[in-house]
Amino acid sequence: MRRGSGKIRTGILYSLEASWWLDGGMTQPPVTYGFSATMTARAGLGDELIALVLSGLDEGNPAASEYCLVYLVSRSATNPDVIHLIEGWTSEEDHHRLFASEAAKALVARFSELLEGESSYGDLVPVGGKAVFA
């Protein structure tokens, strides 16, 4: 891990009993709610789907909120059209409240044109771990 470069951001989530995020020496609220999604783009549209999912981090969108502490977008190693999303939130209520906003509804509506078949979604209970973000 490089320190002082300003290009690497590190967060560590300790056990649930003492769960808090350490980020450059700053303590943040605990991640108490997680959400996962696996989505398959129509053939050849994986890059467009990734771009759309990552736009959730744009100002005004839910993942840009201070309540979203983890937003990890990944691509399948075997199928470039399969996208995985892991989110970590301060609470389930914060997640649902932000996704009820008009900006979130507009973002989610754009997914249908890119998706093939049904996506799978899941609620998660974070118990510990580590995250490093660029």
Would you mind describing this structure in some detail?
- By secondary structure, this protein is α+β, with helices and mostly antiparallel strands.
- It has one domain: Alpha-Beta Plaits (2-Layer Sandwich).
- It has helices spanning 46-54, 92-99, 102-109, and strands at 9-13, 21-23, 26-28, 33-40, 68-75, 82-89, 120-124, 129-133.
- The strands form 2 sheets. A 4-stranded antiparallel sheet has the order 3-2-1-8, with no helix packed on it. The protein has a 4-stranded antiparallel sheet with strand order 5-6-4-7.
- β5 and β6 form a beta hairpin.
- The longest helix is centred in the middle third of the chain and has 9 residues, at 46-54.
- The protein is globular, with a radius of gyration of 15 Å.
Concise account of the structure shown:
The chain is of the alpha+beta class.
Strand order in the sheet with the most strands: 3-2-1-8
Q: Tally the structural domains.
A: 1
**Structural class estimated from helices and strands:** alpha+beta
Query: Total strand count, please?
Result: 8
Overall pLDDT confidence? 82
CATH architecture: 2-Layer Sandwich
User: What overall form do the CA principal axes indicate?
Assistant: globular
Q: What is the H-and-E element order? A: EEEEHEEHHEE
Helical stretch count?
3
Proportion of helical residues: 10-25%
Helix-strand layout with pairing:
Elements: E1 9-13, E2 21-23, E3 26-28, E4 33-40, H1 46-54, E5 68-75, E6 82-89, H2 92-99, H3 102-109, E7 120-124, E8 129-133
Antiparallel strand pairs: 1-2, 1-8, 2-3, 4-6, 4-7, 5-6
